C-alpha cells in the first residue's frame, strides 16, 4: 500500500464537472509485419497480459480516506480482468482519418472508473481509408489517469508494453512479484491520517520559512543575490514583477471546458526539425516545436480575427526525474510559464523571441526551484492545492504545451509495427487547448486536444500547424546559415585506456598516411620515367 503524493492527488482533486484528468495515447499498427501477416484480438490480449507485471500501475486501485481527511492510497490487486480493461471496437465504413479522430475524441471524453485500476485500452479496427496507412491496419488507444503517470514515465511505459522486434520473446521479460494488498480498515486509515498530519506540520513550517526567504526576500544578503541573478539574466526584479504583473490575454481557450473533446494529429519529420535547429544558432528542438505551435495559433486565431496583440503563454511541464525516467515515484514534474509569441508573424523572429523567453524562464526557475510546485502540493491540503492551481497558476497561462522524447527505433505490438503515434493529453478549465509533441522513429507527432466548443474545426488547426512549420523551414533555409558539418566532441576527461587507444589509432593512421604518400610518390616517379622513355624512343 502506497500513499499518493500531493501532485498525484491534485489530479484526482481537479477531476469534476467536465474536467477529466486522464492522459492517453494511440498508435497505428501495420499487422503485415506480424508472424503470419495478421494479428487477432486474442493475440493482442495475450501480448498485453504478458506485460502487466512490468509496471505496478496496471494492478493498482484507489482506496480513499473517509471524509477526505488525508490523501488516498494505492493498493495492488493480484488479479486484473484484462478483458474488462481492453476493449474491441471498429470504425464504420469507410474508416477514414476523420472517423478515427472522432472515435478517439469520444473515448477520451469519458472518465475512468475509480473502482477499478485506473486504465483502459481499445483496439480499433477498420482503418481502411487513411492515406499513407496500409489497409487493414488497427489503432491501439490506451488511457491512464494522470494520478498514475506523467509524460516521462508514460514514455517508459509505452516501451514496456511493446517489443523491439516482431518476434517478441516474453520469457526474457523482467517480472514483478504479484502482491495482493488487503483493504485497510477505517480505523487504520484514520490513524494514518492523524500521523501524516502531525508529520506534515514541521515540514510545512520549514518549507514556509525557506520559501519565504526565496520569494519574499527574507535576509538582505540572499535578496541581493536574487536581484543580481535577475539583473544578469535581464529579468525584472521581484518588486518589478509585483508592480507590473499582468495576466495573459483572454482567448477562446480561457473558458470552462464542455463535456466534448476534439483530437487532431500532425507528423513532422525530425530531419527537417534538426535542420532548422542547425541553421539557427543556439536553437533546440523544443524551441522549434514551441515556435511551430506559436505560429499555428497566430494563423488560427488570425483567421478568426481573434489574435491578441500581445503574446499568449503556455504551461510547460518540466520533468524532475533526471536520468531515471521510470521508477515508481508518481508524478515528478515541475511547471514553467513560457511565452509563445503568437503576436509575431515572422517565424525566425518568433523563434528568437521564444529562445529569449525560454532563457529567462529557466533563470527564474533556477531562482525559485523547479520543484517548488511539487513541494507546495506535497504540503498543502487537497482543497488548498486545487485553489492554488485554479486561482493562482492557471490564470497566468493560456494553453498547455509539452514535448516528450520517445523511442528512436520501431516498436511492435503482438508483431504489428507501430507506424504512427499520438499523445492525447488534457484540456481543462481555463486551458482549453493542449498541444503535446512526442518523437518516435524519425517523426515528431503533435497532437492537439481541445474542448469541442472552443475548437470546432480541429482539421483547420492541423493545417495551421503544418503551414507554420513549413514557413519556419523555408525561413531557416533562406536565412543564409549553412548547416554545419558533424561535430566530433572530444571527451572532457579521457581515460588512460581511451587516450592510449586514441594514440594508437593516430599512430596507425599516420603510418598508413605515410605509406600511402610513399606509394603515391613511387607511382609518380615510375610514371615520369616511363613517359621520359617514350619521348627518347620518339
How would you characterize this protein structure?
The chain has two domains: 2-187, Chloramphenicol Acetyltransferase; 247-406 and 424-477, 2-Layer Sandwich (Chloramphenicol Acetyltransferase). The chain is built from 15 helices and 15 strands. The model is unreliable at 215-223, 233-245, 486-525 and 528-538 (pLDDT under 50). The chain has a six-stranded mixed beta sheet. α9 packs across α10 and α10 packs across α14. With 538 residues, it is α+β, with helices and mostly antiparallel strands. It is globular, with a radius of gyration of 28 Å. It has helices spanning 6-13, 41-49, 82-85, 97-108, 151-160, 186-215, 220-232, 238-244, 270-279, 285-303, 347-368, 372-379, 382-393, 458-477, 496-537, and strands spanning 2-3, 22-30, 60-63, 73-76, 86-90, 119-127, 137-145, 261-269, 313-319, 333-339, 399-405, 412-413, 416-424, 433-440, 443-451.
Number of strands: 15
Decide which structural class fits the backbone.
alpha+beta
**The named CATH superfamily of the largest domain:** Nonribosomal peptide synthetase, condensation domain
Oligomer state of the chains in this structure = single chain
Terminal CA distance reads 101 Å
Shape: globular
Number of helices: 15
- Helix fraction, binned, reads 40-55%
Which ranges are low-confidence, i.e. pLDDT below 50, for 5 or more consecutive residues? Answer: 215-223, 233-245, 486-525, 528-538
What is the CA-atom radius of gyration, in angstroms? 28 Å
CATH architecture of the largest domain: 2-Layer Sandwich
